[in-house]
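# nightly structure sweep
# worker-07 picked up a monomer target from the shared queue
# config: single-sequence mode, recycle default, output format = C-alpha cells
# input follows
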Amino acid sequence: MGEIQGQGERMVQYKMRILGINCMNHDAAMAVVDYSSGTGEILWAAHSERYSKVKNDHYLNQKIVDEANTFGPFDKVVYYEKPLLKKMRQFYAGQYGLAMSYTEMPQWHLDHFGIKIDEYVKHHDSHAAAGYFTSPFRDTGATILTVDAIGEWDTVSISTANKNHIERKETIQYPHSIGILYSAFTHRCGLKPAEEEYILMGMAAYGTPKYKQKIYDDFVYQTPFRLKKNLHRGLSDWEPNADVMDIAASIQAVTEECLAELWHRASKYGSRNLVYAGGVALNCAANRVLANMGLFDNIWIIPNPGDAGSSLGCIAAHHKRHLKWEHPFLGHNIDGEYPVDALIKELKENKMVGVASGRAEFGPRALGNRSLLADPRGEDIKDLVNSIKKRQKFRPFAPAILEEDVNEYFTLPTAVQNTPYMQFTAACTHGKDFPAIIHHDHTSRVQTVRKTDNPGFHALLTEWKKQTGCPILLNTSLNIKGQPIVNDREDSKAFTNKYGVKVLG
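# output follows
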C-alpha cells in the first residue's frame, strides 16, 4: 500500500475504502470512509431505519446495503463492538437466551448480505473515536468522556487524546450505568426504554424533583457514581402513586448531578477541550447545566454520539486516523436545489411546510434537509405541529436561527459559542415573541446555522428574516411519532398524501 508522511512521523498508509457497521442493537447504521488521501473522507453514513421504515431498527436491510455498496468495493469491514465479550456480559446478566443464540451474532446477520467482518472494535473505543476523530482538537488534544447505557461491559470511560493516540484512563462497568438508570425511569414513566428517553427529558420541565433524594436512597451512590442495585430489568412499580412528571424531574436532576461528578473527574486530566460521547450526550438539558460549570472552554459532541454514530467511529478507532468532518449531511441524496422561494411562499400561506432536499442527516435530529418547518410566532403553531406529528402536547420544538443572530435572542451556555447540532438548551430572551419554540422552563434546544453548515438552509433563514423580520424558524424532524424520518422522494410524497403537509425538495 505504500507510505505517507505527515507531521514529522512515518505513517503506514492503511487500506483505502472502509465499511463500518453497527447492527444487532438499537439504531443500526452503516458508514463508508476513504483513507486514500491519508485523512479519512466520509463518503456516506446512514441509519437502517430510514430504509426499512422500522423505527430504531436493530437490523440491516437490503436497501441500505445496496446503497452502501454504491460506494464500494471495500478493502475492509469493521464492526463497532466485540460480540464474544458482549456475550460474556449477557451470561453474567442472566440473559441466557441472547448469550446462547448463534443468530444474535452479527456475522450470522451479515451473511445474508454477503458481508464479512474483518475487524472488531470495542464499543466504547468506537464511541470515543467517533467523537475525537471528528473533533477540531487534532492539534491541541482533548479529554474524552463517554457515557452510555452499556457496551460489552463498559458504561463510562474517560480517555485522553493527542494527535492520533487515545489512551483510556478510567472505566466504570456494568451494572453501574447512568444510561441504564435513565432508561429504567423512562420505562417507569410509561415510555419505551432505549428509544424515548428524549421524551422523559422533555417531561422533566413540568415536574418538581421531589423524589430526587429517594432515588439516591434507593438506587444511587453519587460520588463516585455506582448503582446500589442492577436496574437492567427496570424499577417495577417504584413509587406507584407518584406523578410521572415529578419522577421525570427527579431523575433528570439526579442524572445531571451524577454527570457533573464525571465531568469534574474528566477535567482533572488537564485539557480544556472535552469530547463528549455516547448516547447520554444527547441529553441537551443536562448538557446546558454541565457546559455552565466552567470546567472546559471547548466542548465537541458529534451530532450522532449514540450507537449509530459508532458505525463511523469503529472505522476511526481501528485506523487511528482523523476523519474529514465537514457536516452531518451524509445520508441518502435527493437531487435538486434547495427550494428557498417555494418554502417561504408555503410558510407565509400555510405557516408550515416540509423540506426533503439534499443528503439526509446522520443523527437523530433534522437540521434542515429532512425538516418540518413552521413560523414560530403563532400561539397555535405548537399545538398544530404536535397534532400533525401525533406527539404529546407538552413536547417542545427547536428554533433554527442564523449564527450571527443567536446571542440577541438566546443565552447560550458558558462554554458554547454555537450549537449547529441542537445539543444544548438555552434560555430565550424573546420568549413572548416565539411561543412555538419555548419549552415550559423557558428554554429552547437551539440550532445555529452557518452558510458552511448548510448553504440551502442558511439561504432560507436569511430570506425569511429579510421578508418577515423574523430571524427564527421552528425546525422539527419530518416524521410522525414512532416512525423514522423521511428519507427519499417516495417518502416525501407519502407524507404529503397522508398528512396533508406539502413537502418540497
